[in-house]
Amino acid sequence: MKDELVFGICDQAEEPIKVHEFPFAKQIRHEHIDPVMAKGPCWARHRVQNFYQGEDYFLQIDSHTQFAPGWDKKFIGALETIASKSTQDSYHLKPVITSYPRSFKVKDFTAGLFELNSGDRNTQIMTYMKDALFCQGSFSRQVGFPTHSEKITHAFVLAAGCLFSKGSFVEEIPYDPNYYFYGEEISMMLRAFTRGYSFFHIPDVPLFHLYTDVENLPRKLHWDPADEVNRITKWQELQQTTIVLRSLLFAWGNRSPANGKPHPLPNSRHLGSGVVGQTSEHEATIQAVF
Fold it and tell me: With contact defined as beta carbons under 8 Å apart, do 187 and 86 qualify?
């Protein structure tokens, strides 16, 4: 299936990826953005989704990610297993697989040697951190937990660094470029839920992420001072996006802001909520009021 893969890349490095040097260059849809002009990960993911051309499936990952052999078959098989139960319960009709991937270590970057933390094959679940609910406006921190189960289980939060679903997800739940770094996961989760999507964790997720810097291999981040000094719009300004999530919540009609006048939604019908699920249903599940 490797010839059927399509890679969408928003390259925000100083030196662009030399796409033409890859043997599968025709499968890469690439855009290079000068770091000074870049506006963060959510903005970049929104741009990447513009490369979508009706592919059957959609996988979104973070940078610094490694794949286990057979990862595509693993994801597709799990998605089809979940969707097959939709004849009994429509909740399974539009599944999304999500997770915080396990970690990996860099053994020799030049030689391409990595140590994947694949020992624990059980299902990893996610939840909100109790002491970090609504810690920044409507944003709440999420955390992953190991289990002793090898079964597919329901999920109620979404991780942007591991998101797998049918390709139509891109058209129904496009990335909101108004977010900067925090808030997009809860926004996407709520928008997807109210459009009939449901979320699941699977065992032995075939992705691995580098969560920390490696000696002599620092991960350059968007707010790097060398780039930030030349930006017209600073990252602190881009981060002030909580109002977008508040607008989304108020638009459902079951919330009212303090002054009785809801903020305008972003200029797209796809960036607001749907009509299939209700916020009250999701709030009851996670025991939190948005």
Answer: no
CB 126 within 8 A of CB 142: yes
Rounded CA-CA distance 184/38 in Å is 17
Torsion over CA: 218, 129, 184, 153 (sign):
positive
pLDDT given at position 141 = 75
CA–CA separation, 176 vs 43, rounded Å?
Answer: 7
DSSP string for 266-288 = PS-GGGS--SSS-HHHHHHHHT-
- CB of 101 within 8 A of CB of 205? yes
As a whole number of angstroms, the distance between CA 19 and CA 17 comes to 6
If you ran DSSP here, which 8-state letter would residue 159 be given?
Answer: -
**Half-sphere exposure (Cβ direction) of 205: Cα atoms closer than 13 Å:** 31
pLDDT recorded at residue 58 = 97
Q: Helix (H, G, I), strand (E, B), or coil: what is residue 46?
A: helix
Show the low-confidence residues of the chain (pLDDT under 50): 250, 252-269, 282, 287, 289-290
Mean pLDDT of the chain: 81
| H or E, element range at 48 | helix 41-49
* Spacing of C-alpha 236 from chain mean position: 21
Could you give the count of Cα atoms lying within 13 Å of 213 in the half-sphere of its Cβ?
7
**pLDDT at residue 86 in the model:** 86
DSSP H/E element including 76: helix 71-83
Stretch (H or E) spanning 8: strand 7-11
pLDDT of residue 244: 56
Residue with tokens 């979508």: 52
Domains of the chain (ranges, CATH numbers):
2-286 (3.90.550)
Q: Distance (Å, rounded) from C-alpha 80 to C-alpha 74?
A: 10
